[in-house]
Amino acid sequence: MNMLAESSVLTGPCEGRAVFTPGVAGMTGIFDPDVQILVWTRDMPDALSDYIECAASRMSASSRMLIGAQGQLPESALPVLPDQPDHEGRFLMQSDVRMLVEAFSDLMDCPTVALRLEVLQRAMCPRFHTDRVGIRLLCAYRGEGTQWIDDQGANRQKLGRGAQGAPDESSGLMPPGAQIHTVEKFHVALLKGDLWQGNAGRGVIHRSPEITPSTAPRVLLALDAVWPD
């Protein structure tokens, strides 16, 4: 299944580092060497939003991952989401994950996609960092999406231990007045890492958004390409 055959207009460049596309076909824009993050903007169906809220209402800070899943998804299979609420949006959730897996597989020309569908009560990666991967797809079904900063003016030496424990906003990582961008809920983000060909030391600088008791849980899908050894 090839969802990427048609062209799509890319809009909203951000310092030459980020682009936005209104359609799945525009995901091919990530192959531009100057693009580090690409966001497919889309609207969440009401039935799917209702399903996620129904699932979230059954969770507490100590609950297990009621709709969490992880593993590798073979071709043409719907993901198995354990302990799914009996709700009309359940199939929509499965179908949307399946569609994103197929689109990502087409894009990367990989036979298998590893997925993590996580229910998070706290930020998994609260500090700005880059990933040691080639590329990763992220989509938040509940809560805010990934935060990132423009590469221009960023001091990468202040990532990780280089910050010496100082907060991201005051460590010297970002120039004064730098904007922190946030991917919206249900939008699909493609993030290049340091292992993308020719991208060493240039991976997109990003972090997980803060999660508070009033906004928890955050439901996040992460996809990685898998090739045979």
Detailed description of the structure:
By secondary structure, the protein is α+β, with helices and mostly antiparallel strands. The protein has one domain (11-144, 183-226): Jelly Rolls, CATH 2.60.120. It has 2 helices and 11 strands, in the order βββαβαβββββββ. The strands form 2 sheets. An 8-stranded mixed β-sheet has the order 1-2-3-9-6-11-5-4. Strands 8-7-10 form a 3-stranded antiparallel β-sheet, with no helix packed on it. A hairpin with a 3-residue loop joins strand 1 (11-14) and strand 2. The model is unreliable at 6-16 and 60-67 (pLDDT under 50).
Summarize the helices and strands and which ones pair or pack.
Layout: E1 11-14, E2 18-21, E3 37-40, H1 46-56, E4 69-73, H2 90-108, E5 112-120, E6 135-142, E7 147-149, E8 180-182, E9 188-192, E10 205-207, E11 218-226
Parallel strand pairs: 2-3
Antiparallel strand pairs: 1-2, 3-9, 4-5, 5-11, 6-9, 6-11, 7-8, 7-10
List keywords for this structure.
229 residues, alpha+beta, Jelly Rolls, 8-stranded mixed sheet, 3-stranded antiparallel sheet, 2 helices, globular
Number of structural units classed as domains: 1
Q: Provide the β-strand percentage band.
A: 15-25%
Rg, rounded, reads 18 Å
List how many beta strands DSSP finds: 11
Major β-sheet profile: 8 strands, mixed
**Averaging pLDDT over every residue, what do you get?**
82
Strand order in the largest sheet: 1-2-3-9-6-11-5-4
- Name of the CATH architecture: Sandwich
In N-to-C order, the SSE pattern is EEEHEHEEEEEEE
Number of helices: 2
Helix content: 10-25%
Q: Say what the CATH topology is.
A: Jelly Rolls
CATH class category: Mainly Beta
Structural class: alpha+beta
